């Protein structure tokens, strides 16, 4: 006679559970690295998209890295057709497969959106097409309006927008003037007895843009602001360095040398900003003159929330929110505006007739006097020149969006899990939209505004478009007009023989080896 147990023992249950869990994890892994990409590929191909077949794990990453390395290995001949050097893999994919194409970023397909009408829809439907989520490491460096979505973004945008209204920007004109004046003053001191000097204008323009943000963000606490941004740059370099490796969740919590340094810097920055905020709050309460800097504007509009240490009903920004937004202005506003000015100087050096036309306009409006707000808003030729520089050399060459649920885009149905790439550097130079002279530097095309310059106004979006358009657009344009007017009032300039044409995509579209220019004192 045998005794049969009709219940399963606890160890058996545990073993079965572990096996099931391992099977589930195994299935998820296989699905992630093989079945899901293949499924997405089929859906895209069925809708007419073309691209390389999926290759396990790395997709097109190896080729993209090789193309980028090759493009950066040598300068290009001077031409405004810079996309092959700036975004080589995207450019070659579109050449090979056409405008309806995709690439593999590892296991994720990235679809190229080249049609301006589709672009408009992507910019409009901000909840369906969101910016990719930032890694926690990047958030340490650049949290704030740029990375928020949904209600949080709505609230922040609403509160911050008034700080960038034209009336507030008008009050900031003395700060814009001060920073540009310091830069041209330095250049004047470098002019030789023969009346000229050669220099790389890139670091000077970057320093000027950084100075502008320190002054406009921190006002009377400008020196502390400068220190804050120095630390911010140091933190940025470490974050970028760490982001280059493979992302391992939780790695940032390990006490490695670099992690400790990043934490230390982040803490120092926050403490310094907090110190400045306290000073400003005190002076506001003491009834001192209203200040016009961005930080004071944000503090003023959030005083109730701040008094309550951010525990208010959530109507305003908390202290940490304000700290994050101030850090973000520096990251989003410094390099972009400097880049616009760098390429403007390079192009006006190469197209001397336009330099002369711009200078004639500046002298007609200001003579040798300080540029003022009203005069800056009347600069027509200078505006046309900036538009043409932003068209050919957009500081942000490509935008990214994610598709988190199946979404319609015109006739297309995009499956969840694909990424979108908006290569505006290609759209802004597409001969079908801009004519056969699309690669020529011809500011005249903007003489009757953007709508007359192209077949579709959504083919010109250097600041993005729609609800999430760059909040600093007017700030950047006033700053750039002030700097260029003051440069044109004092100097004529040409490319130095040591200049090499090397546009490439770093954080923005920059000359890889600087912008070497010869200045002549007028
Ligand atoms: C020539 C100069 C500039 C260019 C070309 C530029 C370009 C852009 C672009 C293309 C976007 C949107 C990207 C996307 O849709 O994914 C953007 C967003 C943004 N920019 Fe700028 N920018 C410039 C200057 C500035 C300045 C001076 C500031 C601040 C002081 C600034 C602050 C921001 C912020 C906070 C956002 C996020 C807006 C939001 O998501 O609501 N930018 N910028």
Automatic annotation (TrEMBL):
Q: Single GO cellular component annotation?
A: membrane
List, alphabetically, the Gene3D superfamilies matched: Cytochrome P450
Sorted alphabetically, which keywords does the UniProt record give?
A: Heme, Iron, Membrane, Metal-binding, Monooxygenase, Oxidoreductase, Transmembrane, Transmembrane helix
Which ranges does the record mark as transmembrane? 12-35
Q: Where on the tree of life does the source sit, at the highest rank? A: Eukaryota
Localization per record: Membrane
Give yes or no: UniProt keyword Ribosomal protein: no
User: What is the topology of this protein in the membrane according to its UniProt annotation?
Assistant: Single-pass membrane protein
Q: Which cofactor does it need?
A: heme
**Binding-site residues, heme:** 470
State the Gene Ontology terms under molecular function.
heme binding; iron ion binding; monooxygenase activity; oxidoreductase activity, acting on paired donors, with incorporation or reduction of molecular oxygen
Would you identify the family this protein belongs to, as annotated? Belongs to the cytochrome P450 family.
User: Which protein is depicted?
Assistant: Cytochrome P450 CYP72A219-like isoform X2
Provide the species name. Cucumis melo (Muskmelon)
Its lineage reads:
Eukaryota, Viridiplantae, Streptophyta, Embryophyta, Tracheophyta
From the UniProt record, report the name of the gene that encodes this protein.
LOC103493472
